[in-house]
Amino acid sequence: xxxxxxxxxxxxxxxxxxxxAKQFVAVHTLEELKxxxxxxxxxxxxxxxxGSNMLLTKDxxxxxxHIDLKGxxxxxxxxxxxxxxxxxxxxxxxxxxxTIDQNYGGLENMSLIPGNVGTTPVQxxxxxxAEIKDSFVSCDAIHxxxxxxxxxLKDECQFGYRESIFKNQVKDQYIITSVVFKLTKRHHKINTxxxxxxxxxxxxxxxxxxxxxxxxxxxxxxxSKLPDPNELGNSGSxxxxxxxSKKEFEKISQKFPEMKYYDISDTEVKVPAGWLIEQAGxxxxxxxxxxxxxxxxxxxxxYGNATGxxxxxxxxxxxxxxxxxxxxxxEAEVNII
Length: 337
Ligand code: EPU
Hints:
Strand order of the largest sheet: 6-7-12-10-11
Number of domains: 3
Helix content: 10-25%
Largest sheet: 5 strands, antiparallel
Shape: globular
CATH topology of the largest domain: Uridine Diphospho-n-acetylenolpyruvylglucosamine Reductase, domain 3
Bound molecules: uridine-diphosphate-2(N-acetylglucosaminyl) butyric acid
Mean pLDDT: 95
Distance between the termini: 25 Å
Radius of gyration: 20 Å
Oligomer: single chain
């Protein structure tokens, strides 16, 4: 465990932005993590997981601690369910594939989401009608200042749409070290009702899909719409889908009757930001090395050497245009550093 200086983070963020960490250390065990925290208690720290949900707009003037804790194990089971504890540094998609190989159900709709297991609760990741909170039991975390361990049970996490306590009340106070998921061993709840999953399965003549077949369908859909960060730097959805009141929606849809929406409650609707961005003419546009993906307007991309500031400028341009056109404020989902 060695601290490195002026360390390039290009390979540690899926946007592929060149930015440096003043100091950088990767920790592989809980003991290493505690030692680093103890020995550097006076330093400013920045916790780095899979680097898949951040935009680096400058060098990081801090000790960057890369959480590389590995391992997963079954900690409990009954006839119908299994409880699995997974360390924070495991790659999310590899973990999902492993659960499917064991015939454990619950995570299949969230196949191919970039990032590491430890950061999944922070923004309650989700896709195709499933969210992490549906399978989440608890997570273990270390308090950065006191080094105390704390278990956060699901009810304490205040999960919402891309939201949790880790983005709010306890922001920057804890490092999540492992997560426990409760998955099904049988009577899996196959959920193909959302988006294009059913169409993808039907195309392949699948009527009663297995977990693997659902996962494969999700992977095929994601690959057709979303760029692979290894080929084209990106951070998935750059913006959240805005939630607006039905009153506001009715007003706006008089001008834009074809506007898409999903009912959220009796009083609110969610509007797909990708649709708004496409309507505003940004889809597929390129500004230098920064751009908007050609198949999914919600995703901003780095064609090679874009700086974080350039991507940020594009995102601000989009936000302003959407506001001027529709009167809707869209918020970044990605953390701007
Ligand atoms: N749309 C457009 N143009 C676009 C993109 C989307 O008109 O360029 C329209 C689509 O036609 C569709 C609607 O917007 O009617 C929604 O699109 P889609 O189903 O692709 O989902 P999304 O709202 O764009 C969300 C998540 C994704 C997740 C998908 C599938 C957010 C911010 N994003 O995207 O999550 O994979 O649903 O469930 O909620 C991520 O967070 O990184 C991410 C990729």
